User: What shape does this take?
Amino acid sequence: MSLDLYAEDLVANYEHPHNRKNMSDCDSSSHEYNTTCGDDITVYIKVKDGKISDISFDGSGCAISVGTASKLTDAIKGKSVSEIESLGFDFIVDLIGIDPGPARAKCATISLKALKHAVFIYEHKKPDSETERL
Amino acid sequence: MVNIDSEEIKKDFPIFESRKDGQRLVYLDSAATSQKPRAVINAISDYYSNYNANIHRGVYQIAERATEAYENSKKEMAKFLGAESYEELVYVRNTTEAINLVALSWGEKNISEGDHILISEMEHHSNLVPWILLAKRKKAVLDYIKVGEDYRLDQESLENGLEKNPKLVAITHASNVLGTINDVKSITKKAHDKGAVVLVDGAQSAPHMPVNLSDIGCDFYALSGHKMLGPTGIGALYGKREILEAMPPVIGGGDMIETVEFYSCTWNRIPWKFEAGTSNIEGGIGMTPAIQYLQKLGMENIFKHEVELTKYALDALAEIKNVETYGPDMKKNDHGGVISFSVNGVHPHDIASIFDNYNVAIRAGHHCAMPLVTQILRQSAVARMSFYIYNNKDDIDKAVEAINEVKRIFKK
Ligand SMILES: Cc1ncc(COP(=O)(O)O)c(C=O)c1O
Assistant: This one.
């Protein structure tokens, strides 16, 4: 583990997360639980013309999971549903600027996994194996 | 009284020879598993290199030697624990398997609908889940001794639990989360007065303090070899002779029988009745040097050393703002070398990750005691440091340095 994982920006996103709210009128949502840290994240989306028009997350967890969820929800607004379907681990590495390493990978990807599940549910599709491995 | 010289002891443990970024490993997770001295590693290697053979059946020399080495380790362990005979020691994989063996054999036979089983709120899942399962199967009632504000067992709650005349009292000797050491001798006496059978979870006591089973008087005692310098995959269940003799076997197969006919069989003597199939021979053999290493240092000295480190660490942590610790005060000599702590507003896994950057190994989570951590401590997880013979004050200073880094990163 390198301390670079705890970049000031990520910690700030943990301390004051963006888009952290329950969204009762969402078009789809998905909840994920990570047994190692007990991270508990739900992602909510609204879709308009095939694009994410609004997104939020709720829940609790470690700095890596909450900080990444905050950054992810910022980055995802306006992206097309099909684009999200193809996002994987590399997207998270780009987003937080570092490979979190095996011990914390699940923390870093939990919000992306929840987001992709929400998208697949919206599209009435089965999640692909790459999403399940996140 | 010998003082424990941790710098000298570290030299006996190969793992402390390696460096990461020039830093030696600071290992503060011995409650999860201990490091292994060279003597244990060599004994296992010696067995495979020089006398590898299956035990109990061979008549050739190396088979006899392996059998003797394996049985000898039980004799060493019986002496170490103050058991009357090695026949009262069943080798199993670990504490968890030992307790499950009691639940599946003794429990199946002796617990019936409406019977009470008394355990405590500070139990590890391994002394909790088997009883939840047994209680469900038998429609028995599971009662809990409460943990008080002082992180000790609540005496009134213990008395109330005993008033229900439980068939079984199963209690941990030392908590792997709070560090609390329970007075299992007095609990055993009180429970026996009520006619209960007593099981003590010794996973955190056998490695760290003098244990004399004849003195404690409990009926069962469970331990894990890997927490006391030994290899993984070997543990022991102690049971009083007459109780083990009356218990039915759970696993059938080779070695556990005396005679087999096509439709019936008779059981081997204890402890072999409970050890079906080829044993963990290397594991048993590895326990002998582990026990000898501990005995050479003296359990009394080891306990004193860990208490001293715990006091030192608690004093250091008390100076740091926003750090909370969970465990009894040090006034009654009932707090062993475990400190659970948290830094307000920081998730314990982030603490552990930042410690890792300093090459300091600690654990974060519910420590397999979810009811205790989530409902009594009211935390989703806590960080934990635990001490052993190879730790010293420098290790704790390093941990304090890492906590200050946590506080810097999270601006606490
Ligand atoms: C108090 C206590 N009981 C039981 C266990 C279970 O030990 P094992 O996993 O070796 O079976 C542990 C290990 O963490 C423990 O600390």
About this structure: The first strand of chain B starts at residue 19 and ends at 20.
